[in-house]
Every structure is written in C-alpha cells, then in structure tokens.
Amino acid sequence: MPFATVDRTRMYYRLEGREDRPLLVLSHSLGLDHGQWDQQVPDLLARYQVLRYDIRGHGASDSTPGECTIEQLGRDVLALVDSLGAREFFFCGLSLGGMIGQWLAAHAPERVRRAVLANTSPYYADKSTMEARRAKVREEGMSGVADIVMQRFFTAASLALNPPHVAWARRTLLASDPAGYAACCSAILAMDQRELLPTIKVPALVISGDHDVSTPWTGAGQVLAQAIPGAAVVHLPAAHLSNMEQPRSFTAALFEFLDQPAEGDPYDAGMAVRRSVLGDAHVDRSIAGSTSFNWDFQAMITRFAWGTVWTRPAVNHLMRRMMVLTAMAALGRWEEFRMHVRAGLAHELEPCDLKELLLQAGVYAGVPAANTGFQIAAEELKAAGR
User: Dihedral sign, CA of 313, 315, 321, 325?
Assistant: First the structure.
C-alpha cells in the first residue's frame, strides 16, 4: 500500500493514470476517505493523472493527537504532492476537502492551476451543530453521529433506496477513527477564511447542492461565489455529497471547468479523435479518396462531429460508440453500422456491448432492425476472431 510520511504522520494515497497527463488531486469529505471519488476516477483517468488521499485522521492515514487546522491539512497536500515529485496540480475538494482547497488556492497559487470547491463553506456561522457532533463522537464514537450525518450526506430519497454508494458511505463513516474525526471537526470550528477569498486569483468553480443543509447555497456557496473573483458556479440537485448523488453531472462539471477548449480551429483535435476511434487505416483511406468536390464536407465532419461532439469528455468513447451504433441500427444505416462495429471491436467494444445495444434496438426500433444488426455484428465478430 502506498504511504507517504508528512509532518511525522503516515498518509495513505492512491496515484493512478499516466505520468504524462496533468495531475488532479481529489480531497474528500469529513468522515469518509479517498473512496468517495470512485465514481469519478474511471472517467477522469482518460485525461488526468489522479491523486487521491486520506486526510489525516481518516481512512488508512494516521491520526495525530489533539486538534488540527485547515492550514495544516493544506500543507499536508503540498507535502504529499512534493513527495511524488510533482509541482503544479488541479485540485478538487468537497466539504472539508473544499475548505482545504480554499486555503491552497489562496496560499499556493503558483502550485494550484484550477480549484473546484464543492459543497463547502469558508466558515461555520452556527458552530453549535459541529461542536455537538465533536462532543458526541468523543463520548460515544462514530455510531453516535452516524444517523444524523447520513441524513446530511444524502437526500431522503437516496437514503430510502440505499444504493451501493450510500451503503459504502455509512460503513466508511462508522469505521472512521473518532479521534481523527473530532480533530478535523476542531479544524472546521476554528476556520474563518472569508478574508482570504478576495485574494484568490486561481480560477475557481463552486459546486452547490440544491438540497445541501450542511453547506447550503445561502451562507456558504454563495459567499464563495461572490467573494472569489471570477468564480464559476454549478448547482446540482443533490444533498451534501453531490459527487456521489449526481456522479455523472458532477464529473461533467469538472471536465467543463478543468478542460478549457483549445483556441482556434477544432480540426486538428477532431482528426486526432477520428483516428483514435476509427483507426489510422480507415482515416487514411478516407483522406486518400477525398476529392475537391467532397473535401469541404470531410473537413466539416472532422471539425464538428469529431472535433466538437466526440471531444466532449463527459461521455467516454465506449458510450459514444454505443449511442452511434444504436442510432445507425434504428435508422438502417448499415454501412455506417458495420464500419463502427469494426472500428469498435479493434478498440474497447466487446461482444456483450453489441448484444445489449441490439436487444435495446429490437425493443425500440423493431425486430427487423435488430435481426440485421445481429447478422452484421456476427460477421464482424468472426472477421475479428472474436
């Protein structure tokens, strides 16, 4: 297991993805651990090297005696990144992680490229709730606060359904170290970062949950958005753990904010995606077969289909392939269907994906369409040796 020693404290971290990609640091909520980001990481790895870690007193990281501060937790991040030999990084933090993000954006602007501050606040106006929670944890352990915290983490509808991520959050909360939890409660109680906010020059995104009672828009997210110069804002229909309750919307907001589109003509980006999806051989044949008559059309497709739509990161290439194949089957565009099946099988498309999308097409586009699709898919699977 990967650990780093920071300020005489052993901290657990997970570093995933290619070293040649920008580093994105993810920082979790009070009472959870790095697993909070499990729903985001698979998509993020397509564009970033992702560093997750357990805040001191949480998960597999050590607890330290006494209380801690937001500054200490922020310096932990810088030391951890230093230990991995990195310099600049993107940062996304939620709740306690967002409080750490505010400190980093204000005090280490030369390190932080962009900061996402989700479901968080620069200060706690009503300290009685957090003080009561800290006292109860010290007296009764995590079971003493689990129910009330879960009611703040998620909406009542999510709690009633109890999907896997909700069950995971409860287990993780109950397994947390009460001393570490209480120490971070103290950091939140002592925090008042309102004067720092106008000094933040790092581009910032504030994400707020419409049903978040822990850090509501009024008094928390709105304060951040109004005080941080040029801050962008996204509202999600979620409670406190918006990245778990609305995972795809949260990831889409991350991509839209972190992945700033390249300036100029999208043709080059489109051509790169076109080659990665269809393969060099197919694209080379298309270019070789183009004429002065159809070249403008080919360029238009490269710019807008491939350079504008296929480059959007919120939907991965496998999902886009399946969307295209379902549409082509429904419309009976069998030449395009065959081409995308062949290209997909050479990359990430698997036989089970084809089966499911054709069953779906059979229900909504008709049995004849699915029958033809299965025949073509079977031919291409055989040709591919699958």
Answer: negative
